[in-house]
Amino acid sequence: MKRRTFIKTNFTLTSGLLLFGQQACKSNNNLLQDIGLQLFSLPKMLNNDLRGSLEMISKMGYKKLELYGPYPFSSEKTIKEWEAITPQLGFSGSGFFNYNVSDFRSLLDEYGLKAKSAHIHLHTLNTRMPEVGHAARSLGLECVGIAFIPEEKRKTLDGYKRMADEFNVLGDLAKKEGLKFIYHNHGYGLKEQDDQVPMKLILDNTDPELVFFEMDIFWTTAGGANPIEYLKSYPNRYLCIHLKDMSKLVYFSKDGSNPQQWIELLPYMTNVGNGILDIKQIVYEAKKNGVQHFFVEQDMVENPKIALQASLDFLKNI
């Protein structure tokens, strides 16, 4: 080979390898695509101006949404319980915000947003799964599940065992509707009771083909557990994850079993990337172990326009 030909060939190969390396690095620097938002982050804004709020969310760069209930299809019991607490919350809007399901879907489409998951009250899932399925298919949902286990159902280990059985039934019903049932954890059930950890009891006693989970990394940490250890120990069980951060490491004052203890820790919730949680490593392990939907959730955050944009910008660059 002539010297000129050798140099030209070697330069071409080297340039190609460098370009490949740059693309690989670029890919590795963007762990997340299509980042989602749990709408309970800005309920008052949605309540007052739904269209304007969705436009803002879209312009920020969020692609997916997770909804919170109740909904038009919710059981009467669920709706009455919601109406009883709305005076304290300071807002009443939820679900489709006075739209019917088809018009709500059209509104989401207008702003390039896709609803992929919805929190639905346990009583509604148990009594109205066909109605849930119809609305979910209209919206394009993939997951439906509960935001918490009612306190009266988790007072003992036997209660948690019964919940595992109930989750298996709900998972089967959801599957028949073309959906996946998820359970979103709060901070209870993460410490040993009679030599067993209730959260692990549920994971170990539910069918992995029927029951999936949504990890909230803030509440998991506040409950004394390590999010990464759960993701590694239970691959492909966590389908969704709630991303938020903790300004300093704090734990529940007691067992994390009631809303009062949750409210005590809200001041320590901060923008993703602005706290002490190892967000990049959590996201990496989540993707590695089967998580498909990543939702920013900053519960009723003040100044959502600034806070939610900051969280999204951080996640886009990890």
Automatic annotation (TrEMBL):
Q: Which Pfam families match?
A: AP_endonuc_2
What InterPro entries does UniProt report for this protein, alphabetically? IolE/XylAMocC-like, Xyl_isomerase-like_sf, Xyl_isomerase-like_TIM-brl
The record places domain Xylose isomerase-like TIM barrel at 101-317
Q: Which residues form the signal peptide?
A: none
Q: Which organism is it from?
A: marine metagenome
Q: What SUPFAM superfamilies does the record tag this protein with?
A: Xylose isomerase-like
Name of the featured protein? Xylose isomerase-like TIM barrel domain-containing protein
